[in-house]
Design goal:
It is built from seven helices and eight strands; from the N terminus they run βαββββαααβαβααβ. The protein is an alpha+beta fold and about 220 residues long. The strands form two sheets. It has a four-stranded mixed beta sheet with strand order 1-2-8-7. Strands 3-4-5-6 form a four-stranded antiparallel beta sheet, with helices on one face. It has three domains: about 100 residues, Vaccinia Virus protein VP39 (Rossmann fold, 3-Layer(aba) Sandwich); about 80 residues, no CATH class; about 30 residues, no CATH class.
Length: about 220
């Protein structure tokens, strides 16, 4: 709405089937934390290549496990007066995948925290599991792949992209610009947006190291 884009819409399709677009259809594609959420990243990469026009570019943001210091994690959230759910994350950083265990419990968030000795972490959750196991109503399991920058580049080569460039995102520059200028009376928000439009293409073309899990631009 803010950008006044009026020709956007959502498209749904069956997982692992051809994307509902003709060959060489798009000038560019942006994928943010999405390709790694699909069952077959390699298939989707080939499909995205197919629907790009020759010379077209795809830019991706992804969640690499290299940004995490710990392999085990826990997240708990209240879903009602007497219910909550817990998500247990088991990360294999070397193999680049994460196991997600979703547990839906018939116990309040506050009561569960008491059973965890007020320690909302993986160790307390596993050590005290028997004390709240009977409250589990439903459990779900998901396995998600989380390729690193180097793995994404290999996947792009296998799919047929001719070029892959790990680059800076420009987000830190945008944050700096807004934090330092948004309160100045002589600079309007429109001027800030125009400056971003002018500067970001250059910033986003600057090469970035693999270690920071940079955004990657692929070219057909």
């Amino acid at each position: 709405m803010r950008l006044n884009i009026k020709n956007s819409y959502f498209e749904t399709y069956k997982t692992n089937s051809k994307l509902p677009y003709e060959d060489n259809f798009f000038d560019s594609v942006v994928a943010s934390s999405s390709i790694e959420q699909t069952p077959d990243c390699d298939f989707i990469m080939k499909e995205l290549l197919r629907i790009l026009k020759p010379g077209g570019k795809m830019r991706i943001f992804y969640e690499s496990l290299e940004r995490y210091d710990n392999e085990y994690d826990l997240w708990i959230e209240s879903t009602g007066k007497e219910s909550c759910f817990a998500v247990v994350y088991l990360r294999n950083i070397t193999e680049e995948y994460c196991k997600h265990y979703y547990l839906y419990l018939n116990i309040s968030y506050e009561s569960l925290k008491i059973k965890l000795n007020n320690k909302e972490n993986f160790e307390s959750f596993t050590d005290n599991f028997e004390s709240f196991e009977k409250y589990i109503e439903k459990a779900e399991y998901f396995l998600l792949n989380h390729p690193s920058a180097k793995t994404w580049i290999k996947k792009s080569q296998n799919a047929g992209f001719k070029k892959a460039s790990p680059t800076h995102s420009g987000s830190e520059y945008a944050e700096y610009l807004f934090d330092n200028c948004i309160k100045r009376e002589d600079i309007t928000q429109k001027n800030l947006e125009l400056k971003l439009i002018k500067d970001l293409p250059f910033i986003c073309s600057l090469s970035a190291p693999y270690e920071i899990s940079p955004m990657i631009t692929f070219e057909k």
